[in-house]
Each structure stands twice: as structure tokens, then as C-alpha cells.
Amino acid sequence: MSRRRDPVEERADDTRDLYDIATWERRGALDTVAAGIYHALVASTRLVVVAVALLILVGIGGLSAITDPQIGTLTLLSALPALALALYVRRTDVTTAEPLSLLVATFLLGVLTANFAAVLNSFSQQFFTGLGLVGNVLFFFLIVGPIEETVKLLAVRLYAYGTDSFEAVVDGAVYGAVAGLGFATIENALYITQSIDMPTAGALGLIGAGGGITAVRALAGPGHVIYSAFAGYYLGLAKFNPENRGPIIIKGLLIATFIHAVYNTTVGIGTGLIGFATGLPQLPSYLVFVLVYDGFFGLILFGKIRRYSRAYRSVHDSEDIEESSLEVEADEFDP
């Protein structure tokens, strides 16, 4: 679908100047001022979003959690599997490597935007608590999944999306994975903080008391990377198909939300069934469930990335062959 044009522009030839009649471009001082105001409003909106997210982080105790050395250590340990998966997604990017500065910025934005989900999830939960099991399922599919995947995508959209380094569809998967890592990191920090009695546990006691929740959060983290990598891939697809940007972004969010919500809905039942069938304790049973669930959708994700990689190599190999042929022909006719 090509850009829609005014009837005057459609019928006019290239010799007619249609500036401020049917077309527009930046020319005079007023145009420059208007463009400057627009970009300032966009930038200030982003700053307001970041500032509000930071205030929420401080308000819910997230900042103190991640700056406490002992909680920070447990959080770092819990984030290692998600970090490894995010690095692997980055490694599969067949195009140019993404700048470290953008990856770090996206990670930090993932940490910040996660706080919107914390507030919205907490507020919305009251409307589902009286509905029993059905309420839990509805809560996961209508609130938790959509909100958490949206705020992770927001972390990419706020900065990396608009840069020149976001130059390929697959870059969206990379930045999405990193945003998921940021989300998982702050979520782990909050869960660990809430699960440990800080005043009564000493340094060694804290590590011992936090070992169980750290292990559980370590297994939960990679899922966030996978979900948001799916959504990020479609954000990348949307960037290079602007005429269908909205539906493409929604498609990515629907996929990520579905995978996320199904995980939340089935993790308890699945872990219990694995334990019943195998006799394994709860944590090993949970590990088996996560490996199967994340492994299945991880294979689908990397299959999508591999298809992009094959297409990328195919078109670039064809260009290289054409260039080589032209060079050979030039050499043959070189006197």
C-alpha cells in the first residue's frame, strides 16, 4: 500500500511547486519552529514517561532493592539464565551488531517500564479475586499478559526503535529480548525482597534464605526474554512496513501475550503433574516444566530468526555474485 496522495499531487507534474498546497516540507523559519516544537514535545513526553516510571520504582521499593548489595547479588544470580538467553538472541542477529550503549539503555528502560505493570497488575487484581480459577485465567490473559508485554515493548519504542542502529526487522527481537531481561531483573529483585526478612537475616543467612526464591526466579526469567523477543520481532517488522504498522504490532503483542498467559495459567498445574508422575520435588519439577515450555517456544522463536537469517544471506550472496560478475566483465574488457 503506497502513500495516499491528494488529488492535486496525483495529477500534477514534477515542475509544479505544491508546497503548502498539497505537499509540505521544511522550508521557512516557521516550518523549522513547528518541527522543533513537535520534536521537543515528543522528547519531553518520553522524559515524562521515564520520570514517572522512576518515581514508581522508588515508591514501590524497587530502587532500594536493587541497590542493596546482598539483594543485588541474589538478583544478579537470578538474572543469569535470562542474560544468557538474551545474549544468545543477540548472537543470532545476522546483521550488524547492536551498539552496547543502546542495549544498556533498553535494559534500563525495561527495568523502569516494568513498574507500570506492577502498579496496573496490583490495582486490577481486586476485580478478579472473587472469581476463583476462572478469575485467575482471565487475570492472566486480560491483564498480566497484555500489560507486561506492552510495557516491555514500550522500553524498546522509547529509544532504540527511533535510532539508525535499529536497521533490520531482526533487531526488534534483539532489543525485545534485552527489554525482557530488564523486566525480569527488577521483577526478580522485588520478589526476592518480599520473600526475605531483611532485618532478621544476616549476610550469610540472607543468602541461605534467598536461595530458594532466587532459584525459582532464575527459572522464570528466560520466559520474559522469549515473550518480548517475539513482540520485538514484530515491532521490527512494523518499522519497515509502516502502512500496516498498527496491526503488525498488535499481532506481536497477541503472540507474546498468549505465550505469557498460558505459562502463568499452566505452570502450577504442570509442575504438580510432573512431580506426581516422576516423584520429583517441587523445584526440579518446575525446572522440567520450564525447560519443556520455554524450550518449545524458544525453538519457534529461533526458527523465525533463522528464516530471516537465511533470507538475509540469500539476498546478500546474490548481490555479491552480481558484483563479482561485473568485476570480471570489467577486467575482461580492460585494455
UniProtKB/TrEMBL annotation:
Transmembrane segments annotated in the record for this chain: 47-65, 71-88, 100-120, 126-147, 253-277, 283-303
Molecular function GO labels: peptidase activity
Pfam families the record matches: PrsW-protease
Superkingdom: Archaea
Keywords: Membrane, Transmembrane, Transmembrane helix
PANTHER family attached to this UniProt entry: PROTEASE PRSW (PTHR36844:SF1)
Name of the molecule in the record: Membrane proteinase PrsW, cleaves anti-sigma factor RsiW, M82 family
Organism: Haloplanus vescus
